[in-house]
Specification:
Glycosyltransferase
């Protein structure tokens, strides 16, 4: 066995608790208590088709109902494709996971039922795998054999390989040859043919699987392809990690997904010459995102992030990381992970240190990561937070929302980033990825093209934080070394300039938006609030004028705003939330409702609409319990702004100079 030495396995047997063994059995109950079922042909498709098209929630998978798929939101039964094929993809995943888990269980308990189940599964797939027809059609993805995308193939094959490593010594030489030739080598060679020349988390996963199979079978050609070739693991590490240490795709979920692939390989390679642990970007990838925790206790759901993927739950990364690096930061990550669960799990058993130090819990804090393109402003006494996304476009899993905002009040997201749902659901491409469903600027209701925002000024002092960022579409679009599908409107955004400045005072956030619109395009500045509009007048009801992502908006009201307007929202479990809107030209204010995530409830949308050649819009977000807090006498100057803010019946004047980021209070 490659994964563990005889001595290591003996120590694992001694440490394994009865409750953990019971948990492993329970996690694999479906496979253990059912006849072994392997698809005889290429009927399995994609797990991300297994979502309700209406609510965007994952369907309930039932081993005994391969043609009936239940939505947990309303109990509706969905039938036919794409759900049947996705059901079989779910089965493949359970079978693959069982190979790894039950192979470990065999090593610990020496009970033959676990050995026999792994053997049945591996021989079953080895029988059919060479004859599975290539099939695919998934956006951004290469084809699969057992499944319909190359990534899924890699995810299943790595668990087949690890399970094989656990039981190999119990197989006859003919059984070993049959599995190695018809499943493992066949799978690795298929993955080698279909790994793409791009930076991408998929290529990390694919390379890791090829490398693990190479290590187990002692196939040097597989290992070299996985590790040392262009777009292999080393190349991805050197070119895919940007700025302060975030994976270029900009999604914290996909950052850790790519890192998971790297650790899958490293856990096998750490005792060999092929280890990548000492590469400086290995540590940076582990450490940096921990600085981006929101004050909700989760990671912000930037870009593609399905519900649940925002959780800090990565014991499969940080148990191994703490053992290898002994960094207190990783002990703190484990402290957070185990706040609501004990440390009795497979990762701690196999890769964890015997004892963890009494580490500090990770919490939200302010950070300005200029190269990565994320700024967080945090006020700890009332748990208020604002995040600005000013990163460069990162490809497939990015969303079209440069200079987008997230705002939390009292530890609750009230201007959220929605993340997304299963990619096979209409809501993914039809709603969640789009510019109109983010707190940013949309032009002609189309998606923002790629751009490269820049920071004009950042200043943090005891009394305030000032951030001045901008982006534009005035020249050639930036290119990312990753496959993309054009889902943006380059013509609509041509020559648009968008500057967003934030004055953060802890209990109030004031944003100043400056837009140059030389071709008089239709501008929409969007804010969506996790609450309910208060004070909408029936006389302002209107038909929904929005197209595309917000064509589904309901309860629309339209009002003309000349200089100033107060917006109020009812927030569940909190005081009302108030915004003040200031504009330098007459604009339309469109209000309405469109889906939250999951799509079982709605957000309140407020959209400022204009065709002005130049437009200045300020929005005041009152994050305090003082509902009387207000801003007045806001005056724009050529290169600055002045205003007065009233708190607790005290008036304070603020004068801001854009050129040198001077903020003067009086």
């Amino acid at each position: 066995m490659l994964q563990f030495t005889t001595q290591e396995m003996a120590a694992i047997r001694q440490k394994a608790s009865h409750s953990l063994l019971e948990q492993i059995i329970d996690d694999n109950k479906v496979v253990l208590t059912s006849d072994t079922l392997v698809p005889p042909d290429a009927r399995a498709t994609w797990n991300l088709y297994y979502f309700c098209p209406e609510h965007g929630v994952r369907l309930i998978w039932d081993r005994n109902k391969p043609t009936e798929h239940v939505c947990p939101a309303d109990g509706a039964i969905l039938t036919g494709e794409p759900y049947n094929g996705a059901w079989w993809r779910g089965l493949n995943g359970l079978n693959a996971k069982a190979c790894n888990d039950l192979g470990l269980l065999w090593q610990i308990t020496q009970e033959k039922q676990y050995l026999n189940k792994v053997k049945e599964i591996l021989l079953g797939y080895a029988e059919f795998y060479p004859d599975y027809e290539e099939h695919g059609g998934i956006p951004y993805n290469g084809p699969g054999k057992a499944n319909s995308q190359t990534l899924c193939e890699a995810n299943c094959n790595i668990d087949f390989a690890r399970g094989y490593d656990f039981i190999k010594e119990q197989l006859t030489s003919s059984e070993q040859y049959y599995i190695e030739q018809r499943l493992l080598k066949e799978g690795a060679e298929f993955l080698m043919r279909h790994r793409s020349d791009q930076l991408h988390n998929h290529e990390m996963k694919i390379s890791a699987t090829i490398g693990v199979i190479g290590l187990i079978l002692n196939e040097q050609g597989f290992i070299d392809f996985a590790v040392n070739t262009q777009y292999g693991l080393k190349y991805q590490l050197e070119h895919g990690v940007k700025g302060e240490g975030l994976w270029f795709e900009g999604s914290i979920h996909y950052h850790y997904y790519a890192l998971q692939a790297l650790l899958n390989f490293e856990k096998m390679a750490c005792k060999t010459e092929h280890s990548l642990l000492l590469h400086p970007n290995f540590y940076r990838m582990l450490a940096f995102p921990l600085k981006l925790l929101s004050n909700t206790g989760d990671f912000p759901r930037l870009n593609d992030c399905i519900a649940g993927q925002e959780k800090l739950s990565h014991n499969h990364l940080f148990e191994f990381a703490y053992r290898e690096f002994k960094d207190p930061l990783f002990a703190s990550a484990l402290k957070n992970i185990y706040l609501n669960s004990d440390r009795n799990n497979i990762e701690a058993l196999l890769y964890g240190a015997d004892f963890l130090p009494d580490a500090e819990q990770l919490r939200c804090h302010s950070i300005h990561a200029e190269q990565t393109g994320i700024t967080i402003m945090h006020e700890s006494s009332n748990e208020n937070m604002l995040l600005v996304k000013h990163s460069t476009y990162g490809g497939e899993h990015d969303h079209y929302d440069r200079l987008g905002l997230i705002i939390c009040r009292n530890g609750k997201e009230i201007l959220p980033d929605l993340g997304t749902t299963g990619y096979g659901a209409e809501l993914h491409y039809g709603y969640y990825k789009n510019t109109l469903t983010h707190n940013t600027l949309a032009v002609e209701q189309g998606n923002q093209p790629p751009s490269k925002p820049s920071v004009n000024h950042f200043k943090k002092q005891a009394e305030f934080t000032w951030l001045d960022v901008q982006t534009d579409w005035c020249g050639k679009l930036p290119i990312v070394d990753s496959h993309t599908i054009v889902q943006w409107d380059e013509d609509a955004y041509r020559d648009i300039y968008f500057r967003r400045q934030i004055l953060w005072l802890g209990d109030v956030a004031i944003e100043f938006n400056h837009i140059n619109n030389p071709h008089l395009k239709a501008l929409d500045l969007i804010w969506h609030i996790r609450g309910v509009h208060s004070g909408l007048n029936k006389e302002n009801e209107c038909d929904n004028p929005m197209l595309g992502a917000l064509a589904r908006m309901t309860g629309t009201h339209s009002k003309t705003i000349h200089q100033h307007h107060l917006l109020t929202y009812e927030i569940e479990g909190q005081e009302s939330f108030k915004q003040q809107l200031f504009v330098d030209h007459e604009v339309e204010l469109l209000s309405g409702y469109a889906p939250d995530n999951p799509a079982v409830s709605d957000l309140a949308y407020s959209i400022v609409r204009s065709h002005q050649e130049t437009l200045k819009v300020a929005m005041v977000h009152n994050l305090s319990a003082d509902l009387a807090l207000s801003v007045a006498n806001l005056v724009w100057r050529e290169n600055g702004v002045s205003l007065q803010i009233t708190r607790h019946n005290k008036i304070q004047s603020i004068d801001i100079s854009y050129a040198d980021a001077q903020v003067i209070f009086s």
